[in-house]
Amino acid sequence: MIAVLVAVGILLIGATASLTLRRYGELPDRIPMHFRFDGTVTNCGPRPVAWLLVGIQIVIAVSYALTSASAASHLVASILAVCVIAVCWRSQVLIISAALSGEKRVAMTGFYLFLAATMTVGFAAVRFTPP
Fold first, then answer.
1. How many helices (H) and strands (E) does the chain have?
2. Would you say the pTM of this structure is higher than 0.85?
3. Which of 4, 43, 84, 101 could form a disulfide with 34 if both were Cys (CB 3.0 to 4.6 A apart)?
4. Do 75 and 1 form a contact (C-beta atoms < 8 A)?
């Protein structure tokens, strides 16, 4: 199970990096980096900041790989790491689509549904994985 989770994490990091690389040349000089709950862009950063979430995903993966724990807590940590990496991927999709659209307000419903689903999986892993 842990090997599958590691593979999913690697695939998500690859998908985020691939999306960023593919669309980087199309991004404007300033890209959205922060949104209000209603989807209004509140802060922008320079184009190279588009790589920030890829870096965060890599740091999470490396930090997870360097930790050692019991089998049960290792499974929970694997699930939580993949959940955070997945939210970073979905955030990158939102940021890039907002940057390319040029809109000052974007629809957040899909992001919030994805966030709720991944949080549910993470909380369930913590709650129902035996010690």
1. 4, 2
2. yes
3. 43
4. yes
Q: Which residues of the chain have pLDDT under 70?
A: 68-72, 131
Query: CB within 8 A of 93, min separation 6: which ones?
Result: 19
Cβ atoms of 61 and 10 within 8 Å: the answer is yes
Tell me the residue range of the domain where 63 lies.
2-128
How confident is the model over 13-26, as pLDDT tens digits? 999 999 999 999 99
d(CA 46, CA 73): 39
b/e sequence 21-58, b meaning 16+ C-beta within 10 Å: eeeeeebeeebbbebeeebebeebeeeeebebbbebbe
d(CA 18, CA 51): 11
Which residue is listed with tokens 């955030």?
A: 91
Could you tell me the two tokens for 124? 């369930």
The amino acid present at 47, given as its one-letter code, is R
